[in-house]
Amino acid sequence: MTAPAGPPVTDLDEYPMPSWDALPNEQYWEISEPWGGRDGWLEDQKPRFASILTSRGCPYRCTYCHISKEVGGEAGDIGRLRFHSVERVEQELDTLKGLGVELVYINDDSLLAWKHRVHKVLDLLQRYDFLLADINGVNIRHLFKRTGSGDRLEVDVELLEHLYTAGFRRIGLPFESGSQRLLDKYSTAKWRIDKCDVFELIRTMADMGFTTNANFMVGYPDETLEELSQTYMLARRAMDAGLDGCGFFMVQPFPGTALYDEAVASGQLDPVTRPDDMGWSKSQSPSPFRDLKIDPQVLHYSRNLAFAMLNSDRRSRAWLEPTAPAAASPVSAAAPGARPGERPLLPVV
Known about the structure:
By secondary structure, this protein is an alpha/beta fold. Helices cover 30% and strands 12% of the residues. It contains nine helices and ten strands. It has helices at residues 25-31, 86-98, 115-128, 157-166, 180-186, 198-208, 225-241, 258-266, 296-310; strands at 49-52, 55-56, 82-83, 103-106, 131-132, 144-146, 153-155, 170-176, 211-218, 245-250. A three-stranded parallel β-sheet has the order 1-4-5. Strands 8-9-10 form a three-stranded parallel β-sheet. A two-stranded antiparallel ribbon has the order 2-3. Strand 6 (144-146) and strand 7 (153-155) form a beta hairpin. Helix 3 packs parallel to helix 4 (157-166). It is globular.
């Protein structure tokens, strides 16, 4: 019998700061594989890097994320959003600066969730002048703000400008899907396609000088062909708006997530499936689910074709996978949901 976890520490400042000076930093820097990438560094350069957390948890409970099982149950409430004070963040940044760190990756699950606080953190980062890697845990909704009494959201230009002046230059946008039904079911309805003009967001970020890519997930267990086409069409329109690259990842039911439990219970995942066979880096692999609504070969082929076609532009080279799949011959049928006059993206199956 497993005793349930106790209540989590609400004030993260109660935890001691990592003993950065006790780590084998020189060995890490010699290996030169920083979490968050090497953007801005030449191949023969070895940045002095560090990865930090200024908060824990997330306001959302996406079923494919570990946090979906970390509110209630055996894990207690460790997935709830909690913060270090700005003073504590300053202390850690000061320590890193003293160690000679040049590149910082902020590994928060949801750095931008509390706008009042994040502006203070960005002020700190601007003062220390670190090179900043891509942000982990960006949510589309947090890049918009509510104005007036309507439910339509506007791009939060003030936040974007502050991110840029703090040192961020490269930001991934997790759109997840072009289907609102799938966003509602699997992604906690964390953004609404009809209320957030993501194309205006992309154009605004491009004008400011950001390099942006987008992440899309395909292969949800009950995804239909129409919904898959909606995702591909959203990706294509986003690239037309100025996105630098996009990736399509097969949905992965990792152990420790609500999606894993649901997939095992429904028989869509063999319970002896090895976790080592899953991974976001294995995005070109076939889907791990059984009984998909979409033919698995169609799903696998269309994912690779969409990736190759949308990332064929020279500006997307930085986001390409090591070996991109070759594009098939041009297709003539329009994808479901295409607007009049649009060039086709995928064959209709």
